[in-house]
Amino acid sequence: MGQNQLSNSQLYIGIDGGGSKCRATIYTQDHKQIGTGVSGRANPLHGLEQTFQSITESTQLALADAGLPAEACNQLVAGLGLAGVNVGHFYDQISNWQHPFKSMYLTTDLHTACIGAHNGADGAVIITGTGSCGYAHVGHQSISLGGHGFALGDKGSGAWLGLKAAEHVLLTLDGFACETALTDKLLAYFEVNDAIGIVENLAGKSSSVYAKLARIVLATAHEGDKVAIAIVEEGAAYISELARRLFTINPSRFSMIGGLAEPLLTWLDEDVASKVSPSLSPPEFGACLFAQQQYAAESVA
Protein backbone atom coordinates (compact mmCIF):
# COMPACT_ATOMS: atom_id res chain seq x y z
CA MET A 1 0.00 0.00 0.00
CA GLY A 2 2.90 2.33 0.74
CA GLN A 3 4.20 2.21 -2.84
CA ASN A 4 0.72 3.03 -4.17
CA GLN A 5 0.69 6.13 -1.98
CA LEU A 6 3.79 7.35 -3.80
CA SER A 7 2.35 6.99 -7.25
CA ASN A 8 -1.12 8.37 -6.56
CA SER A 9 -0.45 11.88 -5.26
CA GLN A 10 2.14 14.12 -3.67
CA LEU A 11 3.03 13.21 -0.09
CA TYR A 12 3.97 15.78 2.53
CA ILE A 13 5.92 15.49 5.74
CA GLY A 14 5.35 17.91 8.61
CA ILE A 15 8.22 18.17 11.08
CA ASP A 16 8.03 19.78 14.51
CA GLY A 17 11.41 20.21 16.16
CA GLY A 18 11.96 21.53 19.67
CA GLY A 19 14.25 21.39 22.67
CA SER A 20 13.25 17.88 23.74
CA LYS A 21 12.15 16.00 20.63
CA CYS A 22 11.52 16.05 16.90
CA ARG A 23 8.27 14.61 15.54
CA ALA A 24 7.72 13.93 11.83
CA THR A 25 4.38 12.92 10.31
CA ILE A 26 3.65 12.02 6.70
CA TYR A 27 0.34 13.14 5.19
CA THR A 28 -1.37 12.54 1.87
CA GLN A 29 -2.52 15.39 -0.37
CA ASP A 30 -5.93 15.27 1.33
CA HIS A 31 -4.43 15.29 4.85
CA LYS A 32 -4.64 11.63 5.81
CA GLN A 33 -1.91 10.68 8.26
CA ILE A 34 -0.01 7.61 7.10
CA GLY A 35 3.11 7.47 9.24
CA THR A 36 4.88 9.19 12.12
CA GLY A 37 8.25 9.04 13.87
CA VAL A 38 9.88 10.69 16.88
CA SER A 39 13.57 11.29 17.53
CA GLY A 40 15.78 13.54 19.68
CA ARG A 41 15.81 17.29 20.02
CA ALA A 42 16.00 19.53 16.96
CA ASN A 43 16.78 23.04 18.18
CA PRO A 44 19.81 24.47 16.32
CA LEU A 45 20.76 26.36 19.48
CA HIS A 46 21.94 22.95 20.73
CA GLY A 47 23.88 22.18 17.55
CA LEU A 48 23.17 21.99 13.84
CA GLU A 49 24.39 18.43 13.43
CA GLN A 50 22.06 17.23 16.16
CA THR A 51 19.19 19.08 14.45
CA PHE A 52 19.90 17.54 11.05
CA GLN A 53 20.32 14.08 12.59
CA SER A 54 16.99 14.33 14.45
CA ILE A 55 15.14 15.51 11.33
CA THR A 56 16.61 12.65 9.31
CA GLU A 57 15.94 10.02 11.99
CA SER A 58 12.34 11.08 12.60
CA THR A 59 11.74 11.13 8.83
CA GLN A 60 13.09 7.61 8.40
CA LEU A 61 10.96 6.38 11.30
CA ALA A 62 7.88 8.00 9.73
CA LEU A 63 8.63 6.38 6.37
CA ALA A 64 9.00 2.98 8.01
CA ASP A 65 5.73 3.52 9.90
CA ALA A 66 4.03 4.36 6.59
CA GLY A 67 5.40 1.22 4.97
CA LEU A 68 7.53 3.26 2.57
CA PRO A 69 11.18 2.62 1.63
CA ALA A 70 13.93 4.87 3.01
CA GLU A 71 14.71 6.24 -0.45
CA ALA A 72 11.15 7.61 -0.71
CA CYS A 73 12.42 10.53 1.37
CA ASN A 74 13.43 12.35 -1.83
CA GLN A 75 9.82 12.31 -2.99
CA LEU A 76 8.44 14.08 0.09
CA VAL A 77 7.64 17.77 0.26
CA ALA A 78 8.72 18.83 3.75
CA GLY A 79 7.49 21.56 6.05
CA LEU A 80 9.81 22.25 8.99
CA GLY A 81 8.74 24.16 12.08
CA LEU A 82 11.84 24.44 14.25
CA ALA A 83 12.66 26.15 17.52
CA GLY A 84 15.59 28.55 17.28
CA VAL A 85 15.21 29.57 13.62
CA ASN A 86 13.88 32.96 14.67
CA VAL A 87 17.63 33.63 15.02
CA GLY A 88 18.66 34.70 11.52
CA HIS A 89 21.91 32.80 11.07
CA PHE A 90 20.31 29.53 12.17
CA TYR A 91 17.51 30.07 9.65
CA ASP A 92 20.09 30.64 6.92
CA GLN A 93 22.18 27.61 7.86
CA ILE A 94 19.21 25.25 7.86
CA SER A 95 17.80 26.77 4.66
CA ASN A 96 21.16 26.03 2.99
CA TRP A 97 21.24 22.41 4.23
CA GLN A 98 21.63 19.82 1.48
CA HIS A 99 18.40 18.22 2.63
CA PRO A 100 17.14 14.80 1.49
CA PHE A 101 13.64 15.96 0.50
CA LYS A 102 12.01 16.81 -2.84
CA SER A 103 11.40 20.31 -1.48
CA MET A 104 11.79 21.86 1.96
CA TYR A 105 10.07 24.88 3.50
CA LEU A 106 11.31 26.28 6.81
CA THR A 107 9.63 28.42 9.45
CA THR A 108 9.49 28.67 13.23
CA ASP A 109 7.85 26.06 15.44
CA LEU A 110 5.63 28.88 16.71
CA HIS A 111 4.30 29.56 13.23
CA THR A 112 3.49 25.93 12.45
CA ALA A 113 2.03 25.41 15.93
CA CYS A 114 -0.35 28.32 15.33
CA ILE A 115 -1.32 27.02 11.87
CA GLY A 116 -2.03 23.57 13.31
CA ALA A 117 -3.84 24.78 16.43
CA HIS A 118 -6.40 26.61 14.30
CA ASN A 119 -6.37 24.35 11.21
CA GLY A 120 -4.90 27.08 9.05
CA ALA A 121 -7.17 29.89 10.29
CA ASP A 122 -6.04 33.02 12.14
CA GLY A 123 -5.43 32.77 15.86
CA ALA A 124 -2.94 32.88 18.70
CA VAL A 125 -0.90 30.22 20.41
CA ILE A 126 1.45 29.92 23.37
CA ILE A 127 3.89 27.05 23.60
CA THR A 128 4.73 26.00 27.14
CA GLY A 129 6.95 22.96 27.05
CA THR A 130 10.70 22.77 27.47
CA GLY A 131 10.69 26.43 26.37
CA SER A 132 8.04 29.13 26.13
CA CYS A 133 6.95 31.57 23.44
CA GLY A 134 3.86 33.16 21.95
CA TYR A 135 2.59 33.94 18.45
CA ALA A 136 -0.54 35.49 16.98
CA HIS A 137 -1.56 35.99 13.36
CA VAL A 138 -4.62 37.97 12.28
CA GLY A 139 -4.95 39.09 8.67
CA HIS A 140 -1.71 40.86 7.78
CA GLN A 141 -0.72 41.37 11.42
CA SER A 142 1.44 39.05 13.47
CA ILE A 143 3.11 39.16 16.88
CA SER A 144 5.95 36.89 17.97
CA LEU A 145 7.10 37.08 21.59
CA GLY A 146 9.63 35.19 23.68
CA GLY A 147 11.42 32.17 22.26
CA HIS A 148 14.80 33.62 23.24
CA GLY A 149 16.05 30.27 24.46
CA PHE A 150 17.23 28.86 27.75
CA ALA A 151 18.56 30.39 29.97
CA LEU A 152 18.18 33.90 28.49
CA GLY A 153 14.41 33.58 28.27
CA ASP A 154 11.76 30.84 28.24
CA LYS A 155 10.17 32.16 31.43
CA GLY A 156 7.29 30.01 32.64
CA SER A 157 8.61 27.00 30.73
CA GLY A 158 9.56 23.58 32.03
CA ALA A 159 13.25 24.43 31.87
CA TRP A 160 12.69 27.72 33.70
CA LEU A 161 10.67 26.02 36.47
CA GLY A 162 13.42 23.45 36.91
CA LEU A 163 16.16 26.08 36.96
CA LYS A 164 14.37 28.21 39.56
CA ALA A 165 13.79 25.17 41.77
CA ALA A 166 17.44 24.10 41.54
CA GLU A 167 18.65 27.64 42.29
CA HIS A 168 16.50 27.87 45.44
CA VAL A 169 17.44 24.40 46.66
CA LEU A 170 21.16 25.16 46.31
CA LEU A 171 20.70 28.42 48.24
CA THR A 172 18.78 26.51 50.91
CA LEU A 173 21.49 23.87 51.25
CA ASP A 174 24.06 26.65 51.67
CA GLY A 175 21.91 28.31 54.34
CA PHE A 176 20.85 31.38 52.36
CA ALA A 177 17.20 30.64 51.57
CA CYS A 178 14.10 29.43 53.37
CA GLU A 179 13.34 25.73 53.71
CA THR A 180 11.35 24.00 50.99
CA ALA A 181 10.06 20.50 50.31
CA LEU A 182 11.80 20.81 46.93
CA THR A 183 15.14 20.14 48.63
CA ASP A 184 14.44 16.55 49.62
CA LYS A 185 12.65 15.92 46.33
CA LEU A 186 15.55 17.08 44.17
CA LEU A 187 18.08 15.19 46.30
CA ALA A 188 15.97 12.05 45.94
CA TYR A 189 15.44 12.61 42.20
CA PHE A 190 19.18 12.78 41.54
CA GLU A 191 19.96 10.17 44.22
CA VAL A 192 22.49 12.45 45.93
CA ASN A 193 22.78 13.88 49.44
CA ASP A 194 24.35 17.32 49.06
CA ALA A 195 24.55 20.47 46.91
CA ILE A 196 27.58 19.21 44.98
CA GLY A 197 25.57 16.18 43.91
CA ILE A 198 22.88 18.41 42.42
CA VAL A 199 25.49 20.60 40.68
CA GLU A 200 27.17 17.55 39.17
CA ASN A 201 23.84 16.50 37.65
CA LEU A 202 22.87 19.92 36.30
CA ALA A 203 25.97 22.00 35.52
CA GLY A 204 26.27 22.60 31.79
CA LYS A 205 23.20 20.53 30.99
CA SER A 206 20.61 21.35 28.33
CA SER A 207 17.17 22.86 28.81
CA SER A 208 15.52 19.44 28.44
CA VAL A 209 17.35 18.17 31.55
CA TYR A 210 16.05 21.08 33.62
CA ALA A 211 12.56 20.69 32.13
CA LYS A 212 12.31 17.19 33.61
CA LEU A 213 12.19 18.84 37.04
CA ALA A 214 9.06 20.85 36.17
CA ARG A 215 6.63 18.11 37.20
CA ILE A 216 8.30 17.95 40.62
CA VAL A 217 7.89 21.72 41.02
CA LEU A 218 4.21 21.62 40.00
CA ALA A 219 3.43 18.64 42.24
CA THR A 220 5.17 20.29 45.19
CA ALA A 221 3.22 23.50 44.58
CA HIS A 222 -0.06 21.56 44.62
CA GLU A 223 1.02 20.09 47.96
CA GLY A 224 1.20 23.62 49.37
CA ASP A 225 4.95 24.29 49.48
CA LYS A 226 5.36 28.09 49.55
CA VAL A 227 8.58 28.16 47.52
CA ALA A 228 7.19 25.93 44.77
CA ILE A 229 3.97 27.97 44.71
CA ALA A 230 5.93 31.21 44.33
CA ILE A 231 7.94 29.78 41.42
CA VAL A 232 4.86 28.48 39.60
CA GLU A 233 2.90 31.69 40.23
CA GLU A 234 5.72 33.81 38.82
CA GLY A 235 5.93 31.66 35.70
CA ALA A 236 2.15 31.61 35.24
CA ALA A 237 1.93 35.39 35.67
CA TYR A 238 4.39 35.80 32.82
CA ILE A 239 2.43 33.40 30.59
CA SER A 240 -0.78 35.31 31.39
CA GLU A 241 0.83 38.62 30.44
CA LEU A 242 2.26 37.04 27.29
CA ALA A 243 -1.27 36.02 26.30
CA ARG A 244 -2.61 39.52 26.90
CA ARG A 245 0.02 40.94 24.54
CA LEU A 246 -1.13 38.49 21.86
CA PHE A 247 -4.75 39.49 22.44
CA THR A 248 -4.00 43.08 21.36
CA ILE A 249 -4.61 42.13 17.70
CA ASN A 250 -7.87 40.35 18.61
CA PRO A 251 -7.26 36.74 17.50
CA SER A 252 -10.52 34.81 17.16
CA ARG A 253 -9.03 31.69 18.81
CA PHE A 254 -6.33 31.10 21.40
CA SER A 255 -4.70 27.77 22.24
CA MET A 256 -1.91 26.58 24.48
CA ILE A 257 0.22 23.62 23.53
CA GLY A 258 3.21 21.79 24.93
CA GLY A 259 3.80 19.51 27.89
CA LEU A 260 2.95 22.18 30.48
CA ALA A 261 -0.12 23.66 28.75
CA GLU A 262 -2.59 21.64 30.82
CA PRO A 263 -0.75 21.67 34.18
CA LEU A 264 -0.26 25.46 34.00
CA LEU A 265 -3.87 26.20 33.05
CA THR A 266 -5.12 26.23 36.63
CA TRP A 267 -2.40 28.74 37.59
CA LEU A 268 -3.19 31.27 34.87
CA ASP A 269 -5.20 34.44 35.51
CA GLU A 270 -8.90 33.84 34.92
CA ASP A 271 -9.21 36.37 32.08
CA VAL A 272 -6.62 34.35 30.13
CA ALA A 273 -7.64 30.82 31.19
CA SER A 274 -11.23 31.47 30.11
CA LYS A 275 -10.13 32.20 26.54
CA VAL A 276 -8.16 28.98 25.99
CA SER A 277 -9.61 26.76 23.26
CA PRO A 278 -8.42 23.26 22.39
CA SER A 279 -5.74 22.95 19.75
CA LEU A 280 -7.43 21.52 16.64
CA SER A 281 -4.37 19.80 15.15
CA PRO A 282 -0.75 19.19 16.17
CA PRO A 283 2.18 21.38 15.05
CA GLU A 284 3.38 18.81 12.52
CA PHE A 285 0.03 19.12 10.72
CA GLY A 286 0.58 22.88 10.73
CA ALA A 287 3.97 22.24 9.12
CA CYS A 288 2.24 20.08 6.48
CA LEU A 289 -0.28 22.84 5.69
CA PHE A 290 2.57 25.37 5.49
CA ALA A 291 4.49 23.13 3.07
CA GLN A 292 1.41 22.57 0.92
CA GLN A 293 0.77 26.29 0.67
CA GLN A 294 4.39 27.12 -0.19
CA TYR A 295 4.71 24.25 -2.67
CA ALA A 296 1.48 25.23 -4.42
CA ALA A 297 2.60 28.87 -4.67
CA GLU A 298 5.92 27.82 -6.21
CA SER A 299 4.17 25.50 -8.65
CA VAL A 300 1.93 28.34 -9.85
CA ALA A 301 4.88 30.68 -10.17
Automatic annotation (TrEMBL):
ATPase BadF/BadG/BcrA/BcrD type domain: residues covered: 13-291
CDD domains: ASKHA_NBD_GspK-like (cd24082)
Pfam family name, one: BcrAD_BadFG
InterPro entries from the UniProt entry: ATPase_BadF, ATPase_NBD, Euk-type_GlcNAc_Kinase
Name of the protein: ATPase
Organism expressing this protein natively: Shewanella subflava
